[in-house]
Amino acid sequence: MFAAITTTWAVVIMMAIILGSVAAGVGRVTVEGVVYDQDSGEPIGHVTVQAVGTGTATKANVEGKYRLVLDPGAYEIKISHVGYYSQQVAVNAIDSVIIQDVRLKPSIIDMGAHKVYTRAYDPAQRIIAEAIARKKDILSQIHDYSFDAYSRLVVSNAGKPDSEKIMLITESRSTSYWEYPDKYKEVITARTQSANLPAEANLVGVGEMLNFNKNRIDLGRYEVVSPTARDAMDHYNYYLLDTVFIDSKPIFVLEVEPKNEYAPLFVGEIQIADSTFDVVKVDVGFSKGIELGMIDSARYYQSMAPINDRFWLPVEVGLSGRVTFGVPLPGVPKKIDFAHVASIYQYRIDVGHIPGTFNEYRIEVADSADDRDSSLWASLRMVPLTERESRGYERIDSVKHAPKPFYKYALQGVALGAYLLTIGNPDVFHFNRVEGPYAGIGYNPDRLIPNTRLRLKTGYSFDNELWQYEYGISYCLWPGRKLWLGASIKDEITHRPTIVSQATYNATSSALIFKIDPFDYYREKGFAAWLTVRPINHTRFRLEYRDYRQLSQVKNTDYGWLRESITPRDNPPIINGTMRSVSATISYDSRMLISDKGREFVGGEARYLLCEAGLEYASPDMIADDFDFRRYHIQALARTSLLGLGMSTFFGYAGSSDGDLPPQRYFIVDFHNPDYSQPVGFKTVKETNFGGDRAAALYAIHDFGPYVFRATGDGFLRKIPLGLAVYGGAMWVDFARAPTFHDISIVSTVKPYSEIGFELNNLTPFLAPFNLALDFSWQLSHYRTNEFSLSFDLRL
Q: What pLDDT is stored for residue 16 in this prediction?
């Protein structure tokens, strides 16, 4: 469910229903209306509406409006809510739309000898103990289920009047699949959104619901004790607040209070059914031990209903909160509210799933998800829009299509310039000490031709006065196994591979501002051909042939906005010649993916494992070649939680070679780059690259977050928002044989280079989204780099 938070930021994710028939509305009947209080005549919000015996249920919106979409037939529609007598209405679903308003009578229960509780402690302990014991029975009864759902996300400007608050709205219909113990998959079958948001940015579905029947619940970096965990009573206090009634059946309302407010726990209410002790509602926030960055006042809830008269399963899930920016950002409100709600209206329990349902995709978007009829969409909206949301749609659509004043275009231009100079698109603009400023265009169309991707890039680097280009094409032979064949031709400046900095790292901002760039550059001209395939889920195999003329490049500029007295590193030469090589790489990535009609994105998982092994072979015995070498490498990066004490990151790399490895293929452990997302990097090496024809590196980081300060028990230290991380690593980079090419820029390590350190982070929570961290690092070896390093990192 925390995928909903991530989705809100982007600002935080097998069709069982063939959308074509749904979109056409073939044979479907809509039952809709408003639920009122019989005595007062006022609408009742969030009422549960069920088609008895079908597994179909929905929730009314805050204005009491509900909608059910059913196959033709006769139904008993049951409407129920806490504090009211339920009502069943017979409906003969023949007409396309049936209006059925309902009036519920408030229930007046004779409490008899029942005791009225005011945060009663002892009764609550007995109730929660029964619920914990009942949990095992619940978990053993369901092997799998699927459900259809309707989801809506509303993002609002908290500083504007109510009529103008809504900034954007997304809606989607989806089918989700679950299988014991924790397999999950969601397919977005239809979606729509306000006019100021492109369809591809709408990936808001139900998200994986928090399972409160588990003992531990994963919330990003946290493992949170469930209120019904086996050891829950060691972590929470429970108080009986009230007894409410649904269908005249008692429901206990318990307050859930952390025993330690600075531990990562829930705080709120949980409702437990009498006699069966099923969890029927959860409404919780988060303790002070859960840091959500700029998100505060976060609230998560689930409302359950008895499905098939057996299982209490969620029929409504919601997440809300506020995002607060500590510094003003152009065009961005200081406070943004978000509210995500998902109505689950059709369960199918223990019917089994077709083979292949659960693959490496957690969320998929159907190809036809955006092919919708706007008028028909309104009738399929399972939770009707409120008046406020309807006005929000109208206002956004009118503003979107209205002419923009000049200052808005100017702000957009400033924002685009800032983007290109920081995160940027290197195909459009980049800067380094060899090329100087580069300007060009890059276009990667993937839908002009079915199953085909194109790569079209050209541009000019001004300081070395070189026109560059890259043109490529890939064709998918077997979509099921992601079998692609591709080829490209190019003439461009590239850089030597490095172990620390990612190949896709854009060094423009650090090079342009601080004259810092971990890469060494050379020119590459020729062609390549490759094959990629997915042998099994989460793996990729790549086989590639390269035929390139490689040429040295010199440093052409010393420019940088700051550090005027510093001269950037020279760009080292390479061995010029034609390199014809074959390479093979196999990789594994445990992270679940999001597939949006062929485009793939990595999900925002906090715990994952990445592995890669590869070899490269070049020899004149195979084909005419100026080089003769074999190069091998293996690497892994794991990120995991450690005993609930924070997140650990482990990185390992090993590489070796034989033959005469040219300098452009050396193993390079480069100095720490300033990219805020970089997980590892040696901080005491100054601006020195270490290289050789064999290498090994290990690095580990453990981020406690604020846990250390809050675990002290000291009232003052607990309130400190700082986070603490510790780290350390070692590397060994050397030559197995004396190099035939002298490269003064390369330093080797006969003995391992090692360092340790610690970091204080979250120094500037008042400047969100910018977070300043301070690193203290000590070199344990004795190389002519820094014995001690004190550095600042600015992160998002």
A: 29
CB neighbours of 258 closer than 8 A, spacing ≥ 6? 235, 236, 237, 265, 266, 267, 287, 289
Helix (H, G, I), strand (E, B) or coil at 744: coil
Long-range CB pairs of 248-256, under 8 A, 24+ apart, other chains included: 248/85, 248/107, 248/109, 249/273, 249/274, 249/275, 250/274, 251/82, 251/280, 251/281, 252/124, 252/127, 254/124, 254/127, 254/128, 255/119, 255/124, 256/227, 256/284
- For tokens 């890939």, name the residue: 474
Residue 208's pLDDT is what?
82
Q: Over the stretch 294-333, which tens digit does the pLDDT of each residue have?
A: 888 899 999 988 887 778 889 999 999 999 888 777 778 8
List the beta bridge partners of residue 690. 669, 747
DSSP bridge pairs for 177: 146, 185
Backbone phi, psi, residue 582, to 5°: -120, 135
Structure tokens at 782: 């004795």
Residue tagged 């919106």 (tokens):
61
DSSP secondary structure string, 553-569? --------SS-TTPPPP
Average pLDDT score, the chain? 85
Domains of the chain (ranges, CATH numbers): 1-402 (no CATH), 429-795 (2.40.160.50)
- Max CA separation in the chain (angstroms): 97
- As a whole number of Å, the CA-based R_g of the chain is 30
Question: Is residue 195 a contact partner of residue 372, using CB atoms and an 8 Å limit?
Answer: no
**What is the C-alpha to C-alpha distance for residues 490 and 467, in angstroms, rounded to an integer?**
11
pLDDT digits (tens, 9 = 90+) for 11-47: 333 322 222 333 333 457 888 889 999 888 899 888 8
- Tokens 């509602």, located at residue: 281
Single pTM value for the model: 0.86
Which pLDDT does position 466 carry in this prediction?
96
Sorted by sequence, the CB contacts under 8 Å of residue 92 that are 6+ apart come out as 74
**CB within 8 Å of 757: residues ≥ 6 apart:** 683, 726, 727, 728, 775, 776, 777, 778, 789
Residue entry with tokens 């059946």:
249
| 3-state DSSP of 400-467 | HCCCCCHHHHHHHHHHHHHHHHCCCCCCCEEEECCCEEEEEEEECCCCCCCCEEEEEEEEEECCCCEE
- Distance CA(695)–CA(693), nearest Å, equals 7
> Given this model, what pLDDT does residue 614 score?
97
What confidence tens digit (pLDDT) does each residue in 429-488 have?
999 999 999 999 999 888 788 899 999 999 999 999 999 999 999 999 998 899 999 999
Which pLDDT band, with edges at 50, 70 and 90, does 107 fall under?
A: confident
Candidates 56, 62, 63, 67; CA nearest to 33 is 67
What are φ and ψ of residue 451, in 5° steps? 60, 25
Question: What are the pLDDT digits (tens) for 353-411?
Answer: 988 899 999 999 998 888 877 766 777 788 888 888 888 888 887 776 555 555 555 55
- CA–CA dist 785, 189 (Å, integer): 57
